[in-house]
Amino acid sequence: MFLAAAKTLSVTSTTSREILLSIRHYCKKTPTKLRVSEVVSGADLGAKTTVQGWVRSVRPQKANLFLHVNDGSSLQPLQIVASPELNNPLVTFGSAVEVTGILKKSLHQKQPVELEADQVHVIGECNPVDFPFKIKERHSLEYLRQFPHLRCRTNAFSSLLRIRSEATSAIHSYFKENGFIQIHTPIITSNDCEGAGELFQVEPSGPEYNEDEHFFSVPAFLTVSGQLHLEVMSGAFSKVYTFGPTFRAENSQSRRHLAEFYMVEAEVSFTQSLEDLTKVMEDMFRSATEHVLAHCAEDVDLFHKHVTPGHRDVVESMLKKRFPAITYSEAIDILNRSSEEFAFPTDWGCDLQTEHEKYLVKHCGNIPVFVTDYPYNLKPFYARDNQDHPEHTAAAVDLLVPGVGELCGGSLREERLDLLRARLEEAGLEDTYSWYLDLRRFGSVPHGGFGLGFERYLQCVLGVDNIKDVIPFPRFSHSCPL
Ligand code: 4AD
Description:
Blueprint: H1 2-8, H2 16-29, E1 32-33, H3 36-39, E2 48-60, E3 65-70, E4 78-82, E5 96-105, E6 113-124, H4 141-144, H5 155-177, E7 181-182, E8 188-189, E9 221-222, H6 227-233, E10 239-247, E11 260-269, H7 274-295, H8 297-307, H9 311-320, E12 325-327, H10 328-337, H11 354-363, E13 369-375, E14 393-401, E15 405-412, H12 417-426, H13 434-441, E16 447-453, H14 454-462
Parallel strand pairs: 1-2, 4-6, 7-10, 12-13
Antiparallel strand pairs: 2-3, 2-5, 3-4, 5-6, 8-9, 10-11, 11-16, 13-14, 14-15, 15-16
Helix pairs in contact: 5-7, 5-8
4-amino-1,4-dioxobutan-2-aminium adenosine-5'-monophosphate binds next to strand 11, strand 15, strand 16 and helix 14.
């Protein structure tokens, strides 16, 4: 734009200051298209500016028409002041507009600037009677969930999406700064990493498809975890991670399960103990959360003040202390000593249920807590056998967090060829996983990793009760609307 300005001006003086002044003068006359977040910072007072966005409030008064316009770049909208004649056709709540005018200092403390409009152009009309969101009304997340195609137009959901985007960047930054290589693990795979049978099978559809043969010659599925592919890479790179969609055919309507969710997974080679993994989990959690609190302060505030009041204190106390670690056996003792009536059994050997996880978190001071060394039989074939423990346990660890329960699941992997082969043979899987055994045959090293459920992470930081409210388009059994 500056180049265009310089070309149009007949600049006679050669001093750079005069050229700059001329460009500024030119810019004041020719509107610059800016995003709302750029405008509300107040840096461009006096400039002729064009803004495009959606109307978040309309107040027609005798002398002036007041609009709030937002383009998703920040929570704070831009106030537009226009003469009533410009309200033709009528500007309504929810419509898309382009407004041009001069940026002025606002008299209101809440907003540093407002746009004094000389043109208001309605790009897309919106009938406020049919529009499911009402002006000035704070709709519940549950209500918004009924409109997956429109809920991004509300303040609450657009804040959520900005936070989600920023948290994604923060997680990538954490790994980059700590020497991890990002691996794009496949979405389509022939393995069932977790062995839980919650697989979606992938085959072509359509008349040309022959149902008697598989497209890939073998049964193929949407991935439940990128772990095994990361383990392949951990044989050449000592620190790797992946962050992508994972799929589980869980017939669940629960508040913490989806059929499609995003998982952050890391794999670290040359590990000494589970602590090498819990350190990465804790550091990543802290670094992402501190980043989100600092860079999405207004958006997070909206949640902590209006959607989940009081949750700010929970998040702050999570960040104050180191996360404690207890063994599974200690966890069982705590549950058995408690006076709480649990719906599920708490005998040694039982899987921990959400109610148990939430109790343990409360017991440890309502901060994240690691539970380590689960019964060997509860964990998948890849988990490392703790042969030196009196009870038969695996070197596995879950991170449990306030309000959610399990956020991360991880383990040291069985790197010893004979033990791994024996376990695979027992399960009749030695042929299926012959390539996995190869990893132990050629340059095997102690290693381990974990997966963090990204939606559960957002639930934990924002205090959101239902996982369907922290993902743009939730997929769960009997629901795949668009
Ligand atoms: O504990 P999980 O099943 O662990 C694995 O898949 C390992 N292979 C990961 C690894 O070691 N690389 O899943 C990891 C996390 C859980 O702790 C949970 O937060 C989340 O993924 N998760 C789900 N989130 C939403 N909906 C579901 N159906 C989920 N299942 C697991």
